[in-house]
Design goal:
This protein is mainly alpha-helical. It has one domain. 93% of the residues lie in helices and 0% in strands. It is rod-shaped. The mean pLDDT is 84.
């Protein structure tokens, strides 16, 4: 994971634990406290899903660009190898023709 993703996850974890501590120490009834915890947990879960979704989109984009770059480089390399091979074939044919004339 990138440093940014780790920082975001750390922030979310800290915010969730802070909210949970605040709710647990608040002077509310048990039922109300459980509702608050449930709401905060759902919110934290949604935030985490959004963050992970964004991270996955970034990763997919990076991998796609990387694959495209590798394909381009491979195609360029293939063209260069073919060109060099054709040049060598022509060179050998020219030498063979020259040797036959002697």
């Amino acid at each position: 994971m990138s440093k940014t993703s780790n920082a975001v996850l750390g922030f979310l974890a800290g915010a969730a634990s802070g909210a949970l501590a605040g709710i647990l120490f608040a002077p509310d009834k048990g039922k109300k406290t459980r509702k608050k915890i449930s709401k905060k947990a759902k919110k934290a879960s949604e935030d985490l899903k959004d963050t992970m979704s964004d991270s996955m989109d970034d990763l997919k984009s990076y991998v796609s660009e990387f694959v495209d770059e590798v394909k381009t480089r491979f195609n360029d390399l293939e063209k260069n190898v073919k060109k060099k091979a054709e040049e060598k074939v022509e060179e050998v044919e020219a030498k063979a023709t020259s040797a036959q004339k002697k």
